Amino acid sequence: MDPQEYYIRNESDTEARGPFDIEQLVSLAENGQVTDDTVYYDGEAEQWVSVGSDAELKSQLFPEKKKLTVKAREDIPSLNETEETVPPIEVADMLAAAEGRTEDTKDKKDVSEDLARAAKIGMQCSTAAVLISGLALISPSIDTIVAGNYPKLLQQPFVILGAVDLFIFICLMLQAAAIYPFVRFRAALGAGFLGIFFYTQGDAQTALAAVAGSVGLYFSTIFTNLAAILLAMVLALGGMGYFAYALLTT
What we know:
Structural class: alpha+beta
Largest sheet: 4 strands, antiparallel
Strand order of the largest sheet: 2-1-3-4
Number of strands: 4
Helix content: 55-70%
Number of domains: 2
Shape: elongated
Number of helices: 10
Order of helices and strands: EEHEEHHHHHHHHH
């Protein structure tokens, strides 16, 4: 069986990193690049999960070290005896404090849930945006496709770009987060090519919609902040929606 691979993301990261195997994750944890708040993508659950919420993974990355104790000799009186006994701080106590499960830290918010929610919304937004764009770009040439006049399709760049969008849609439906760099390239290409094309044709509204939709698509793969993701979603879906309406009604 192939070793499990992990894609991870910290709160400060702009995009997911990976894939890493478990030995690489252990090394990153030792260097402080992986913490309890780090989230990884669980392919079976199809969601981002914090390392701290996965007991098995946490035990591999942060193994509890045995405490060393020194037995006091009874024949030598101790000069450091105090009436109060302070319990030792254990790894479990530190983890609980980091997760906001102690009396002193219970008011601290666990950001891993927000990161996972933002990542999920971003992927769903990107999936819907490229589907709308792909169908809109291909629909004006549907008669040519049905007629099987494929050489003519090579003279219609919109069809090629629409096919690329549908390919991206399929990858995102399969939760392939590794395709995000290609999605950003597609968004930048769409903003430049479609924006300039329609602007030079005198259709500034369609050009603006194409640019807005592409910008929203780009940032929906980068932002990890929930408010920023929602703004990117409005731009992506609103821009692509109006772009599709303009193509289908002209």
